[in-house]
Amino acid sequence: MPQGLTAVLEEWKCLEEEYQQLQESHRMYLQKLDEISKLQNNCTSSISRQRKRLKEVSHLVKKCSPRPSEEDAQTLDEIKEKIKTRPNAFFEMEAFLPKKNGLYLSLVLGNVNVTLLSKQSKFAYKDEYEKFKLYLTVLLLLFSFMCYFFVSYRFLDAILNFLLVWYYCTLTIRESILITNGSRIKGWWVFHHYISAFLSGVMLTWPDGNQYKTFRNQFLAYSLYQSFVQCLQCYYQSGCLYRLRALGERHNMDLTVAGFQSWMWKGLTFLLPFLFFGHFWQLFNSLSLFRMAQLPDCKEWQVPMCGLCFLILFMGNFFTTVAVVRQKLKTRNQKSKSL
Hints:
By secondary structure, the chain is mainly alpha-helical. It contains 9 helices and no strands. The radius of gyration is 28 Å and the shape is flat.
């Protein structure tokens, strides 16, 4: 037998053995996947049953005699404390179980399972989200700076607004996926990205004219300032979250936000003046646009629509931030009184 053919046969034999091992590994992989799917369904149904029975037990506890003995009262208090902690435990469990997508994700992605099954995958996706937000914010900062100081072309303004639309739409999708995987960002800090995406879309369709040219520099200056503040927030919030997670005071899937939350009270209050200035700039933009809409030669529907968007952003950002600050001050005063 020729030497070349012998080498081919030996290589093929080795390759065939590896292929057999691969087939066996793949068979075991499919078997484990089937087992995991059954376990997931079992856990999901068990959590639903637990929630239902927990409500029933809560009602039974409330119906207990109003004046129980000291021992019974202590037992009831222990049960009440455990009932309070169960929802958080269920939340942690569900973060690793497949769940039906919300309306927004269903419209964008369809009925695709976006639950990441390992902590490493969740953290990697969260870190990628934070990097994406920081890199795009820096890019928008540079683009706004260039458009404001160096160039004045409607085409470049359109590219900036298109970037803003894409950026905010991508943020809403990624945040929805992160919420599905256990991140606790909610409320206004999610909703305001939808408003910002809509506002950027309206700005993108605003035709070039006298009204647009009048508002252009004001909007670019605002975009420049917003990007600068968001860079500050990304940098300092990331450091603060890392420290709080190391101390066990924050959840591992908590995210940086374009605003102020209660956990930022320790160490990040210096950001409040920057945030409030940005909020009132949104109000100034809104009032400027509403005044512009009253001019006789103003025919564009984009003018009052942008004014309304800026007004909604101001009200949501301002009152949410004030509510957080007020709550923290109230809590601090109560603690000082108790001491």
